[in-house]
Amino acid sequence: MQRALRMINIKIAKAYRNISFEASCMMAGFPLTGIVIEEKARLYKIKHSAERSEYECHTPLPVKEWPHPTWRLIIMETSDSTAYSIEIYTDGSKIGDKVGAGTTLYVDQVLKGHCKYTLQHGCSNNQAEQVAILKSLEELTSLSDHNKRKAAIYTDSKVTLTSLRNNFIHTPLIVEIRNKV
Length: 181
Description:
The protein is α+β, with helices and mostly antiparallel strands and 181 residues long. It is 39% helix and 19% strand.
């Protein structure tokens, strides 16, 4: 099957005959059949087995739990001219089956603490970043005088920032972050 698909991919991509099957798939824009088969088998196993509880799907909240449409979260970019007495740095990452999140909290440019979180292997990179932001907001509320200070949260996730700004996204982590803010 791979030989036949390789020849078809070579014709589509107008590539040389000596390229590998994997390279021909990439050049023709088709996913590798092995990866597609593994993905379909994994999804079938998740849907039809008792292991289902191990996997948590990121489904939107029910409509009755959505915030009122007039309530809008305003996310501002940090400014070089503004001094922030609280600075929080977040990061979430996924490498292979290892997923983690971390936060670092500075108050008046003094390190007050950092936290690391290990997440389930089914979590995405974006979910890890969202967990890091949520946990940093929880750490922020533990400070005694956090209401009197300006705080900045630094993240490298454009997807999370866009999701927070978009009021039509109602995934549980995004809604929790909005509520904490």
